[in-house]
Specification:
Rossmann fold, single chain, alpha+beta, Nuclear Transport Factor 2, Chain: A, globular, nine-stranded mixed β-sheet
Length: 474
């Protein structure tokens, strides 16, 4: 129990003023003092929910479903020996440790079965919980542009995308305000999980409110208004935008959405989230937004709004200087040759709707849906790197295994738990298996964990530096 959560009086007064009549402040404060329940989301790019539930039972994890996300579960697990983040299931990308309420924006984006998109923008994407959730909803198809303003956080975003086997993403590192002029009307869906004052996060971080002030709330809301306008420009007509924050003040939530409507009038339609999940109506506002206080579903404080763009609006003009695009698309002949060699050496095929692109000796796989944007915008990383070309052919890369292999390929080697532990620490392993030749898909049980290379009777470790772990694993 942490009961030393700091809540400034001015903030409590603000909350008392906006708390719905059926809720009371005692419950609000009490909920803020309680630690959060831990929650995870099953990564369906790697495993079905059903298969995951079997595994969890074998490990004595107790799961209870998160009502607004089919793949989300509150989890009770004994972490005294091994933290969840160091379990084999986490390392191989089968699940993501994600706060339950933060699963809601993506559920709102894909609220109905008609919500199928081939181009999605995640405007403030790090560390990647929502990006990887969107990729799973898209079944790795189409293009998912994941933008993050903070350069240092792009690394974490990339490591999470890599671990979860996402291959339809393109990463960018800009202030979200650039999208209005650079990529107007390019996306069928935009998620803007806006930077905010974090009033909903005290259950995770007792000091979240140490620097809180009404003035900073107003200042942040000005940035949010710029971002929501930019997101709206980036949206195609008919497209859906979800605006969300982990904060409670109306200035950063309702008022930001109303600002958009005041700016673009009838082009903006609010769509109700009252039916997003059972009992959602308990938190729904008059506009159809979800404004969630922590005591209602025992989660973080949160806000989610779903909006539709009904008409075109004129985008700001920008002067573009892009420089030369450093990649070139492989010829049909080269792509066929790469496919053939990949099939021969690793028994892996390339996914449909994707193409091979070359940069010096590096071989990349980009989703076709990205192509229209390549000349319009500078991305920091696109698709997945599949190989490096050298004199004798191709040296396959880690993501070929984690994003393209299923584990049923002929060229696999299964490691024991102890060997897998060595593997995740970046070391070579000597599996108890008939040595093969060249590159090999490395598995733990039936989960693909990477790509190695036979050198005599050992498998040389091919784990990228950012995924190497050094302590108490599984």
């Amino acid at each position: 129990m942490h009961s030393n959560v700091y809540l400034p009086q001015e903030f409590l007064d603000e909350m008392a003023a906006i708390l719905p009549s059926e809720l009371n402040m005692e419950d609000f404060v009490a909920a803020c003092q309680r630690p959060l329940r831990k929650s995870i989301r099953v990564n369906t790019l790697k495993i079905s929910v059903e298969a995951f539930l079997k595994r969890a039972a074998e490990k004595n994890w107790t799961l209870s479903p998160v009502p607004w996300c089919t793949e989300g579960f509150w989890i009770e697990a004994d972490e005294s020996e091994v933290p969840l983040g160091n379990t084999a299931e986490h390392m191989s990308g089968l699940f993501y440790i994600q706060e339950a309420s933060s699963m809601m924006p993506v559920s709102a984006l894909f609220q109905t079965s008609d919500d199928e998109y081939s181009a999605v923008l995640d405007m403030a994407a790090a560390p990647g919980s929502k990006t990887t959730q969107i990729a799973a909803q898209m079944s790795n198809e189409g293009i998912l542009v994941a933008n993050e303003f903070s350069a240092s956080r792009v690394k974490v975003l990339h490591a999470n995308i890599e671990r979860c086997g996402v291959r339809n993403a393109a990463l960018s590192n800009y202030d979200g305000r650039v999208f209005s002029g650079w990529l107007p009307e390019q996306f069928e869906a935009v998620l803007i999980d806006a930077p905010c004052s974090g009033e909903g996060t005290v259950r995770k971080d007792a000091d979240a409110m140490k620097n809180w002030s009404k003035a900073s709330v107003i200042e942040i809301s000005d940035t949010q208004k710029d971002l929501i306008e930019s997101a709206f420009h980036a949206l195609k007509v008919g497209g859906i935008m979800v605006y969300s924050t982990c904060t409670l003040s109306v200035e950063e939530n309702q008022q930001v959405c109303h600002h958009l409507k005041e700016t673009f009038g009838d082009a903006v339609e609010f769509e109700s989230l009252a039916n997003l999940f059972p009992n959602a109506d308990k938190s729904v506002t008059n506009e159809g937004f979800l404004h969630i206080f922590p005591q209602v579903y025992d989660c973080e404080g949160f806000f989610v709004a779903r909006l539709r763009k009904l008409a075109a609006v004129e985008a700001p003009q920008v002067k573009k200087r892009l420089g030369k695009f450093p990649f070139e698309k492989a010829s049909r002949k080269v792509q066929d040759d790469i496919e053939k060699q990949l099939q021969q050496t690793l028994d892996i095929g390339l996914p449909a709707e994707s193409s091979v692109w070359l940069r010096d000796n590096d071989v990349w796989l980009f989703p076709n849906a990205l192509e229209t944007m390549l000349g319009e915008f500078k991305f920091s990383r696109m698709g997945i790197k599949i190989a490096e070309a050298h004199k004798k052919g191709y040296r396959w890369q880690h993501q070929v295994a984690t994003a393209l292999a299923t584990g049923n390929e002929k060229s696999c080697v299964a490691l024991s738990i102890d060997e897998a532990r060595e593997w995740f620490m970046g070391r070579d392993v000597r599996p108890n298996a008939q040595p093969g030749k060249g590159e090999v898909i490395v598995k733990l049980d039936n989960d693909v964990i990477g790509l190695g290379k036979w050198v005599g009777n050992r498998v040389k470790n091919g784990l990228p530096r950012e995924l190497v772990r050094d302590k108490n694993l599984f």
